[in-house]
Design a protein that fits this description.
1079 residues, 15% strand, single chain, elongated, 39 helices, 29 strands
Length: 1079
């Protein structure tokens, strides 16, 4: 097949496609040349000064008048020296700065490109390599930061290496390239613009291509876009007709080609070929592909707790400098005071908690391990181990709909004919109606019409009402079976090899081997339902459809015209001709808002649509109109003429189609349910009770999104819903925002287009109003819009955001959020791989936040403050020691003791705080209201930090002064005495901090105590005053005396007992909220 295609440079068609593509990207892509923010502010500065609440008259003037004002002012400015002195220099500086900014931030201009088919080397432009890069760092940005940060560096390096391996696997995939010399194997990363690439069935499309040819006889193929837009249904793509026909024209022919390309002729990167083998010419590669341009670059995420600890560390650094200056000042600046200043800075350097980073990183690794080991949320993976505490600080949860809240599995639930309604329990009645209709039709030798004639000639013994209902049921089922864009697909038999141009005899056409593919799962559900009641779609191509009746007869219908569903029309239609009777019928189905004006008058449609919507069903209205041959021929001529027009083609085509959409016969109303994932309702209820505001961002239709918001209880049944009307200008946005401001405590539903307009002119006002809503639903959102909404919430509220999704279209949102969660499901692993946390079901998010989020935040807060306390207390003792000895800059403890203090003597008990928990997991899940306290950040704040500073100063002072007072006669032992009391105090303080004991905590306490006692006995040379070379050794016999023991015990008790008493009184007088539940 591939060898028969002649290779010629084609310019015209590709250039047209490029222009369209460039226009498409410039309108929607991240690199779009939209009006800059500063430009809008400059040109409409006076508009922003107007109050938001104003009358409609304010917008009667033409907006262009406003835009001319700044230019007029600029032109009136005087030139020359007077102008320069009076402020012209400011203007020049501003212009220069703007020019530099434009140069630095200039984005590549997208323009039409000429593509040489099969001759990429002839391309004059330089194009990016066709390789995928998801790595966050390069060699120059990944620079090691020292030994203390080794743990962090190793973890980041491992994460980065895994990302590199995943990218390498994708970039190394082999594809067949067509050249003059025949087929050549080429890596995905080596594909260039202009290459002719062969993509086999179930292979990933490596770049954006124009679809030239397929092995499928119909000239079309299906692609799976689940990795691109999150939809599991297959999309139909059509090959360019002139290249599809090439073999029939002969190799030497060179026909003139005048064919415009449409979006149907494109194959996008990261989609999968689902049927046949395709050949395409590469148009866009690498970072210019649609999928990459719709994905934002990943950022390095830093947790809120880390930022808070950084602030406290800065405060400690200022305290270190201040304390050193105070000591030098009290010395009187004698001698080389600056040398003493540096000595004091070194002596008090333990105020800066250097080991804090290592402790926290090890703690984060422990939290990740606990999350992945939790049997209640199996399959959960922690991909970013730096932010587990973020799970406990979330205020906004932004969720996708399809595949995240729902299973993306549609089930037919209701058929309503106006006078009679059928539910799941009465489907057998419909089946008997359909069976009777067709059996009567074929029992008549004359071979009557297949629509409503046979039921009317039914046996006279049957009641008249039954005949009427039977005929209406039959018509409704036939309309549903014909009005769709579903294609039945049959898999090839096992053992069929070679190219996929196999004969039909190699396929198995049995019911078990048939699957349905369509652009919407709703349509598949409808066709599967018609099969269940006896009318089966067995075959379909671009021009015909075949149905099988309950009796096994095949009905063939010729597809004359197809009118696909669009978000503007909200309906789809098909004109078919029955081959047996030559009758032409126009069938149409769509949303009730669009169909209510098209169908004949009735008194039940609006009411029943409302009833079904309240049940959470997605409704479709089905109607038909019989056409004569003359009516159709007239329509076809007008329709063809409209399609060929150069100007206003879309409007003219729509006008011709609308001429048919009049006084259509209403057949039925269908109700389909998109099944929610398991336990979505209780999970959303739990999150709402936890104080988390939930926003649903979806690319789906407004009606569907509203429907799911109600059925999932995202919006409670009693709550009002304000649907934001479509707006296109600043004036409309202003009035609509005013209307929304008057509403109170209602959920907001807004479309992506309206959102874009509001964000351009009234970003602050929209954010303020939307953040007050209990729930927000954004429909028809693009991936970049989702990410922009996340950033808007972060900037305007300063609160922590979490994004959860399951498709490639959610990756931008997941990466932009403070915490990204991916669901690994039907729509592939792209979201799961890009996320910080990967789960298998939406319901797992409840335990992830309520239990693990709480534990991680509480533990890290306690751990961080305790490490700071550990450094502060020993620095306080050093300050007291220096003060007593006339502010001498002499170290109190030897270097080994200082190292041992932060490691072997206290490390295990302090780190064991990562096992602590204030509330049992069951209690945290039962009372999600406890989560509200975490978002206030009370576990780690300047208030709690100051409390720990005061505790450190008190304990350090008591320990040092106690040692000096009680051991005045044996002054040489002051190091051993004070250090022993310090270690005991730290171990007791850990015990004081712990809320729930774990056996490992007890082991850590006794292990550290044992290590210290052993070092007292065997490393006694380090416990003397001054340097080891002076011979000041500790007398081992002294530490075994009763005097030593009781005096050390007394100092320790005085330093710790008041804190135990205060803790007891606080728990009695002002207990925390969780203690009331556990008591």
């Amino acid at each position: 097949m591939a060898d028969q295609i002649p290779l010629y440079p084609v310019r015209g068609a590709a250039a047209v496609a490029s222009r369209k593509r460039a226009a498409y990207y410039s309108a929607a892509g991240p690199g779009a040349e939209r009006p800059g923010r500063f430009q809008l502010e400059d040109e409409s500065a006076h508009l922003d000064e107007m109050p938001l609440m104003m009358s409609e008259e304010g917008f009667e003037n033409d907006e262009s008048d406003y835009h001319t004002l700044p230019r007029a002012r600029i032109s009136q400015r005087k030139r020359g020296l007077e102008w320069f002195v009076c402020g012209g220099w400011k203007f020049l500086c501003t212009s220069c700065c703007d020019w530099l900014i434009n140069i630095c931030q200039r984005k590549r201009e997208l323009k039409a490109r000429t593509v040489w088919l099969g001759y990429p080397e002839k391309c004059e432009e330089k194009h990016p390599r066709n390789s995928i890069k998801n790595q966050k760092y390069n060699v120059f940005t990944f620079i090691p930061g020292g030994f203390v940060l080794a743990v962090t560096i190793v973890r980041e390096a491992v994460d980065e290496f895994r990302r590199f391996q995943r990218d390498k696997e994708v970039n190394s995939q082999l594809y067949s390239k067509l050249t003059v010399r025949g087929k050549v194997q080429v890596k995905s990363s080596d594909i260039q613009v202009g290459d002719l690439i062969i993509v086999e069935k179930n292979q990933r499309i490596p770049s954006d291509m124009v679809f030239l040819r397929t092995s499928e006889k119909a000239g079309s193929c299906f692609i799976r876009t689940d990795q691109l837009d999150g939809e599991t249904d297959w999309k139909l793509k059509v090959a360019v007709s002139c290249t599809q026909r090439l073999p029939a024209l002969g190799e030497d022919s060179d026909p003139p080609v005048h064919e415009s390309l449409s979006i149907e002729n494109t194959l996008w990167a990261s989609t999968i070929v689902a049927s046949g083998t395709v050949i395409g010419v590469v148009i866009y590669t690498g970072k210019e592909t649609r999928s990459v341009m719709n994905t934002s670059n990943p950022k390095n995420k830093v947790g809120l707790l880390d930022l808070e600890l950084n602030q406290l560390t800065k405060a400690l650094f200022l305290a270190l400098v201040a304390l050193s200056l105070v000591m030098v000042t009290l010395q009187g600046f004698v001698g080389p005071w600056y040398r003493n200043l540096f000595r004091f800075l070194l002596l008090f350097s333990y105020i800066i908690p250097i080991s804090l980073r290592v402790n926290l990183d090890m703690g984060k690794a422990a939290y990740g391990w606990m999350i992945m080991r939790d049997e209640n949320i199996p399959g959960t993976v922690v991909r970013t181990s730096t932010i587990p505490e973020e799970l406990g600080r979330l205020v906004y949860l932004l969720t996708d709909k399809t595949g995240t809240l729902t299973q993306n599995e549609m089930i037919f639930k209701r058929l309503h004919l106006g006078t009679v309604s059928y539910g799941t329990d009465t489907m057998d009645e419909i089946q008997s109606h359909v069976m009777n209709s067709y059996s009567q039709m074929y029992s008549q030798a004359s071979g009557n019409n297949a629509s409503s004639t046979p039921p009317r000639k039914a046996q006279s013994s049957a009641p008249k009402v039954r005949k009427s209902v039977s005929s209406r049921v039959h018509e409704a089922v036939k309309a549903i079976a014909l009005c769709h864009n579903v294609t039945p697909v049959y898999e090839a038999r096992a053992g069929v090899t070679g190219e996929t141009e196999y004969a039909e005899v190699d396929q198995d056409f049995s019911d078990e081997n048939r699957t349905y593919q369509a652009s919407s799962p709703d349509e598949v559900a409808l066709v599967q339902w018609t099969e269940s009641v006896g009318l089966t779609l067995v075959n379909r191509d671009l021009t015909s459809m075949q149905l099988r009746t309950p009796g096994g007869q095949i009905l063939t219908y010729c597809v004359l015209q197809m009118f696909p569903f669009t978000s503007e029309s909200k309906r789809m239609g098909v004109i078919v001709r029955d081959e047996s009777t030559a009758e032409i019928t126009f069938y149409m189905k769509g949303a009730d808002v669009a169909m209510s004006t098209i169908v004949q008058y009735n008194d039940w449609l609006e009411e029943e649509c409302g009833n079904m919507a309240r049940e959470g069903l997605r409704t479709l209205v089905v109607a038909k109109r019989a056409l004569t041959e003359e009516q159709y021929q007239d329509f076809e001529s007008r329709y063809s003429q409209a399609k060929l027009s150069v100007h206003d083609r879309t409007l003219k085509v729509a006008a011709v189609v609308e001429s048919l959409e009049r006084e259509m016969e209403l057949l039925c109303l269908t109700g389909v349910e998109d099944q929610l994932q398991a336990d979505v309702r209780p999970t959303l209820e739990m999150l709402r009770n936890a104080g988390i505001k939930i926003w649903m961002l979806t690319g789906d239709k407004l009606e569907t999104a509203t429907c799911i918001a109600k059925s999932s209880h995202l919006v409670s049944r009693t709550q009002d819903i304000h649907t934001f009307r479509p707006v296109t200008s600043r004036g409309e946005a202003h009035l609509e925002l005013n209307a929304f401001r008057r509403k109170h405590d209602c959920a907001l539903v807004i479309s992506g287009d309206s959102l874009e307009v509001c964000l351009r002119y009234y970003e602050h006002e929209l954010a303020e109003l939307a953040c007050q809503c209990p729930a927000v639903v954004c429909c028809r959102c693009s991936p970049t819009q989702k990410a922009r909404i996340v950033k808007l919430l972060q900037q305007r509220t300063g609160k922590r955001t979490c994004a959860i999704g399951d498709g490639g279209n959610d990756v931008s949102m997941i990466q932009a959020a403070d915490c990204g969660i991916g669901i690994e499901g039907k729509e592939g692993k792209q979201a799961s791989l890009a996320a910080d946390f990967s789960i298998t079901q939406f319901k797992h998010i409840g335990r992830l936040l309520m239990v693990h989020g709480r534990s991680s935040y509480k533990r890290s807060a306690a751990l961080g403050q305790f490490v700071m306390h550990r450094g502060l207390i020993i620095s306080t003792m050093q300050a007291v020691f220096s003060s007593v000895f006339y502010f001498a800059s002499v170290p109190l403890y030897q270097g080994f003791l200082m190292v041992g203090y932060a490691t072997i003597y206290t490390m295990f008990p302090v780190f064991s705080l990562v096992l602590d928990q204030d509330v049992k997991p069951e209690m945290a899940m039962l009372y999600p209201e406890l989560y509200k306290d975490l978002t206030k950040g009370r576990s780690l704040s300047f208030k709690t930090f100051l409390v720990w500073v005061l505790i450190s100063i008190y304990q350090g002072g008591i320990l040092m002064y106690g040692a000096l007072l009680l051991f005045e006669s044996e002054f040489v032992h002051v190091v051993a005495i004070s250090f022993t009391a310090l270690i005991l105090t730290e171990l007791l303080m850990v015990a004081l901090t712990v809320r729930t004991w774990h056996w490992l905590m007890v082991v850590a306490e006794f292990l550290s105590l044992g290590c210290y006692i052993a070092s007292l006995a065997f490393l006694n040379e380090y416990f003397g005053i001054g340097r080891v070379s002076f011979g000041a050794f500790l007398d081992v016999a002294f530490i075994t005396t009763v005097t030593f023991l009781w005096k050390v015990s007394a100092i320790t008790v005085v330093s710790c007992l008041p804190l135990y008493v205060l803790k007891y009184l606080k728990r009695k007088l002002s207990p925390p909220s969780y203690s009331k539940l556990t008591s």
